[in-house]
Amino acid sequence: MKKSIYQMMGMVIGIILIATSCSSSSSEETPVTNAGPLQSFIIQCGGSYYRRTIDQSSRVISLSGIHFSADITGVSYQLAEGATIAPAPQSIALWNNTQEFTVTTADGSQVVYTVNLPDLQEPEPELYKPVVLGYLPLNDFQYDTQLSHIHWEYLTHVAICFLKVKSDGTLNPEQVAGHIVEARNTARKNGVKVLISLCKNTPKEFTNAIKEPSTRTKLVEGIINFVEQYELDGFDIDYEEYSGDQGAPWWNQYRPVLMEFFKELYEAKEAAHPEWLMTSATADPTWLNYGVDWQQYFDFLNLMSYDRYVPKGGSKGSFTNAPGPDATMANFTGDLTYWNTTLKTPKEKLLGGLPFYGFTWENLATADDTGAIRYFNILSEYSTVSGIESMNHYGKTYWNGPEMIREKCQYVKDNQFGGVIIWQLFMDAKDDSPHKLLDVIGKTFQMDKN
Hints:
Number of domains: 2
Order of helices and strands: EEEEEEEEHEEHEHHEHEEHEEEHEEHEH
CATH topology of the largest domain: TIM Barrel
Oligomer: single chain
Strand order of the largest sheet: 8-9-11-12-13-14-15-20
Helix content: 10-25%
Largest sheet: 8 strands, parallel, barrel
CATH architecture of the largest domain: Alpha-Beta Barrel
Structural class: alpha/beta
Shape: elongated
CATH superfamily of the largest domain: Glycosidases
């Protein structure tokens, strides 16, 4: 609660007034003062004032009847001429039962006063409520069979993807148009908020759209209109342009206009729908120089702590890296720590990335051309391997199994980060499998409603 603080300087009045409840003292009453370095001290709770003549021998001020720190809306006091007080009473955000203040007089001597609030109670601790945001690609081949099998009780948000940004500032809704209403209604029925995630239509189109003020403004207006049209809860920006002109790193050229875009989009959102969420997917900080000002426009930053070590083959069997894990615990904790300590992002804004897929250096039929393989396909490919559901790798295939997912979620929980993101929900174990990774997340965060 924002405190209204003022320092009252007035005449000494030898009247003792004691406030014993929040309704017994009028706002018109004058402060009680007496001789001493600290001559009066009054705590305000709304329209009521708590005061007592200060005992200058014990230098203790006891004010009963104040029950919660959040009820305190103001502090006023009077000092002897030339005296100062530290800490400044107006700077106290959370009061304790006993609060000490040092008054330094004009001649440099120091006197300690103690304010006692004997009735002050500790507020109930807020329950930790992590965000679990799952990306939901509506053009995925699993959509029709698996949407109803998502365990929605373990999600707080979904980001429908992708609404694509074109060079002229218009939007290509082809991937989401067919199912967005159904997906939104299903999520909402389960108490899950729905965002729309935006990415480039083809390489450089997102960048081209934000480079010119006219197309940038058109894009901002289009995003606001789309979210309004489909009655969503906000939007997610997945800007993944890895190089600028002539192959130079994008941040050398495009970061200034990207920040202009964020600012314009944020201001438009705040003007039209301040309750909407604005989030951003962000990648490996070792090659994206985001800077400390990135987070000011976003409610959540979704850290893509995966794809760090991949086969990079143009076709199956054409591998350029030796086998190894691509989304380690060190990647996960390192990203969260980097953003929190180096880029000064508040913990509550940071969502750690969890992959529901892995990479294989085997020629598995269900892997794609880059070697990526979905979690449910991993379970299928190695169904004859005893204990596969508890593993993180087998042979030359690496992924995040239940134990790794649990460990990462526990780290988020123990360190009170904002939560996690999932790429993506249709890669989880199928149907009502007992090995769903989403279940592990929900149960680690104690989100089970059963």
